[in-house]
Amino acid sequence: MKAIIIDDELKARNLLKVLIEENCPKITEIYQAENLLEGINIIKSVQPQLVFLDIEMPEYSGLEILDFISKEDYNFEIIFTTAYQEYAIKAIELSAIDYLLKPVRASKIKKAVDKAIEFIGKSKINKRLEELKSVFKSHEFKKIGLPVNDGVEFVAFKDIILFEADGMYTKIFTKHEHKSLHISKPLKFFMDTLNQVGTFYRPHRSYLINLNYIKKYVKSDGGYIVMDNGKSVSLSKSKTDEFMKMMQDI
Questions:
Q1: Cis peptide preceding 103, ω within 30 of 0
Q2: Which CATH number fits domain 143-249: 3.10.450.50, 1.10.260.40, 2.40.50.1020, 2.60.40.1120?
Q3: Per-residue pLDDT of the chain (250 residues; tens, 9 = 90+)
Q4: What distance in Å separates the CA atoms of residue 94 and residue 100, rounded to the nearest whole number?
Q5: How far from the centroid of its chain's Cα atoms is residue 104's Cα?
Q6: What is the value of pTM for the model shown?
């Protein structure tokens, strides 16, 4: 398997190359480029399966990669390498693209590479990057990318009714789906990722609900919430007073 590292910092490229060689035996050839345009020329020439891409570089940002490359050359997966934190990382996670936070740690590389390999050929990297670019431009989160069997499905926050924990997986119910989406991420991931989206609330350790889709609150049987799709959601006793006050304020 071929990979390319695109980063304007020589030390960063060399360090990442060593870490890949030590931790990712599936990658047998590693190329390097110090800027986006040089990297694109190498991509077109050698057709790598993985692209380790810095976001912030002189002249062109890594986010602009698909502005210079044709669709037939999209046969790769991207892992961003970035020193950004908080907002940018959340945007990358919401777009279902993996990343390595600088300084890069060996423990994170194998996991990111294995995850990226699973995506190769199954998802449209151009759509995911366009969603990511739109977030960076508007500074507003509106959608989340959900890894499904045949790629990534983007769902608007406003269309999500609730999340339900299922071990290390999460069931996601939307207003457009009669069935739930079964996503290979724990509920905690969605809690952490959506903690700044005010419409989501955690009434119980197993649920994260969209307050806009609450149908009614039932006092019997210890108290529970019924959502618009008919799904009953448990309400923890410790959350009852908080929930009732919140409903009065809405």
A1: yes
A2: 2.40.50.1020
A3: 999 999 999 999 999 999 999 999 999 999 999 999 999 999 999 999 999 999 888 888 888 898 888 776 678 999 999 887 666 788 888 887 888 988 888 889 998 999 888 888 776 787 888 888 877 766 677 889 888 877 788 899 999 999 999 999 999 999 987 778 999 889 998 998 887 778 899 999 999 999 999 999 998 888 899 999 999 999 998 988 888 888 777 6
A4: 15
A5: 19
A6: 0.70
